[in-house]
Amino acid sequence: QKEVEQNSGPLSVPEGAIASLNCTYSDRGSQSFFWYRQYSGKSPELIMFIYSNGDKEDGRFTAQLNKASQYVSLLIRDSQPSDSATYLCAVNGANNLFFGTGTRLTVIP
Amino acid sequence: AAGVIQSPRHLIKEKRETATLKCYPIPRHDTVYWYQQGPGQDPQFLISFYEKMQSDKGSIPDRFSAQQFSDYHSELNMSSLELGDSALYFCASSLGLTGNQPQHFGDGTRLSIL
Questions:
Q1: What torsion do the CA atoms of B60, B73, B96, A85 make, to the nearest 10 degrees?
Q2: What is Dmax (Cα atoms) for chain B?
Q3: For B32-79, what is each residue's pLDDT tens digit?
Q4: CA–CA separation, B88 vs A75, rounded Å?
């Protein structure tokens, strides 16, 4: 069983809508959770990280963490075509990150 | 702000050749990680270094080795290259060793084995 699970998508939303990306993880001891955005052929770009249960907002992005359910999500408000990318959920290991397979998001103009 | 620098950006090799990939972390970052990402796959952790010592090892083949130097840059050495080694290789750096620290990625090296 993979450590981090994501729906691979593709997820399509119209421009201006809210995109909701979900991730579950298997290690209940995990403490740190990261969302990376990756455009095709480019490197992962850190967009959010969250350590505590609840919500964390940064601009149009909100990360939500529920450790009891081992669930982390990313909401993108007012989605733009430039948000079209693969979003990788990552969870800390002892000294590295475990990545999900990513969700491909397409924002339709 | 300075980012993680990787070189070369592209590398073409033939089977059984060797390759060396270089990574220069963000200034003051003391931890370096190497990842391999195949087409359509998520990044797979290979190896990490903290303060010039290996800190963790993932799915790195025995044909690969790496080290971190006194200036904190790191090199990934790959020998007896195989077709399956064709991938994007990313280096990331962070401040501190714990998994709590965000990792920042370089632009990667695209390795193609002919």
A1: -70
A2: 39
A3: 999 999 988 889 999 999 999 999 899 899 999 999 999 999 999 999
A4: 28
Q: Is A37 helix (H, G, I), strand (E, B) or coil?
A: strand
Token couple for B54: 């290996």
Distance of CA B30 to the CA centre of its chain: 14
CA distance A60 to A48: 11
Question: Tokens 């095709």 correspond to what residue?
Answer: A40
For β-strands A4-6 and A11-14, DSSP reports them as unpaired
CB B80 within 8 A of CB B10: no
C-alpha distance from B8 to closest chain A C-alpha (Å): 14
Tokens of A66: 């529920």
**Given CA atoms A45, B6, A5, A65 in this order, what sign does their dihedral have?**
negative
Pairwise CA distance, residues B69 & B72, whole Å: 5
Which residue ranges of chain A lie beneath pLDDT 70?
A: 1-2
Give contacts of B102 with chain A, Cβ < 8 Å. Answer: 34, 46, 49
- The identity of residue A87, as a single letter, is Y
Contact B42/A45, CB-based, under 8 Å?
Answer: no
d(CA B106, CA A88): 16
Q: Which residues of A touch B101 (CB under 8 A)?
A: 32
